[in-house]
Amino acid sequence: MKAIEIIARIDEKGIIRLDAPLKVANKRVKIIILFAEDEHIGDEQWLYAAASNPVFDFLNEAAEDIYTVTDGKLLKDEA
């Protein structure tokens, strides 16, 4: 794969906005997002990212619906 590095910002809607246009058109790309580790990502952002990520779409299939609220045993705090 060929790599191009460009700076971008993620807006309040989660859309990536490039600082400059790319001179590449009609190509599928893989995007790797790097950001400074000192920037805190809150629990709400992580939860939204996980809930909206299509990689977990299979969990909505009927075949994955194998547990009910009556499965298992109630845990009691023994302390």
What do you see in this structure?
- The structure is a single chain.
- This protein is low in regular secondary structure.
- It has one domain (8-64).
- The protein contains 1 helix and 2 strands, in the order E-E-H.
- The chain has one helix at 43-52; strands at residues 8-10, 16-18.
- Strands 1-2 form a two-stranded antiparallel sheet.
- Strand 1 and strand 2 form a beta hairpin.
- The chain starts with 7 loop residues before the first strand and ends in a 27-residue tail after the last helix.
In the predicted model, the low-confidence regions spanning at least 5 consecutive residues are none
Percent helix: 10-25%
Q: State which percent range the strand residues make up.
A: 5-15%
Which geometry do the CA atoms define? elongated
Q: Give a short account of the largest sheet.
A: 2 strands, antiparallel
Number of domains: 1
How far the N terminus sits from the C terminus, by CA atoms, comes to 56 Å
What is Rg? 20 Å
Strand order of the largest sheet: 1-2
Topology, element by element:
Layout: E1 8-10, E2 16-18, H1 43-52
